[in-house]
């Protein structure tokens, strides 16, 4: 249907024109993670200032779903408070499990990936960047409180 076509276009746009691609150089948290099923990898670097994800970039190689999802994730969390970024990660996880998710906040392009939940083999592709972001933010939290 039309929604599928629109969603496919959004995914391809993020794949071909990734947002926030690259590596941040200074004062950043860097996370490397791979998808064990295919070996594809992602590197995430972000900067946290005053409790916010003030900047974030990603690098890596992977399928269109994984790269589009990484692009969407960086777009969604950039400038957001840590709590909100983690909340978005929860929303995305619910979406991937086919559960009802909180759509009361602005999800930007993320909803284009909803359909992935019907393809279990692709869910790991779509969640890779989100898992990396979550791990990075939680690790950072720990090191700050030490
Ligand atoms: Fe093969 Fe994602 S792991 S399609
Ligand atoms: Fe490897 Fe999708 S096939 S991340």
TrEMBL record:
**One GO MF term attached to the UniProt entry:** iron-sulfur cluster binding
Enumerate the spans annotated as NIF system FeS cluster assembly NifU N-terminal domain. 7-125
Q: For this chain's UniProt record, which GO biological process terms are given? A: iron-sulfur cluster assembly
The record's annotation in Pfam families points to:
NifU_N
* Highest taxon in the source lineage: Bacteria
Q: Which PANTHER family would you find in this protein's record?
A: IRON-SULFUR CLUSTER ASSEMBLY ENZYME NIFU HOMOLOG
The family assignment reads: Belongs to the NifU family.
Q: What is the designated name of this protein?
A: Nitrogen fixation protein NifU
Q: Which organism is it from?
A: Priestia koreensis
Higher taxonomy: Bacteria, Bacillati, Bacillota, Bacilli, Bacillales
């Amino acid at each position: 249907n039309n929604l599928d076509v629109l969603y496919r276009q959004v995914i391809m746009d993020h794949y071909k024109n990734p947002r926030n691609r690259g590596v941040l150089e200074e004062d950043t948290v860097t996370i490397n993670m791979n998808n064990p099923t295919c070996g594809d990898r992602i590197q995430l670097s972000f900067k946290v200032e005053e409790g916010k994800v003030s900047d974030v970039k990603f690098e890596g190689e992977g399928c269109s779903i994984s790269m589009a999802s990484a692009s969407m994730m960086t777009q969604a969390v950039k400038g957001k408070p840590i709590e909100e970024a983690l909340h978005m990660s929860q929303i995305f996880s619910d979406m991937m499990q086919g559960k009802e998710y909180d759509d009361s906040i602005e999800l930007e392009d993320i909803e284009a990936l909803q359909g992935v939940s019907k393809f279990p083999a692709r869910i790991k592709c779509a969640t890779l960047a989100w898992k990396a972001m979550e791990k990075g933010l939680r690790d950072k939290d720990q090191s700050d409180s030490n």
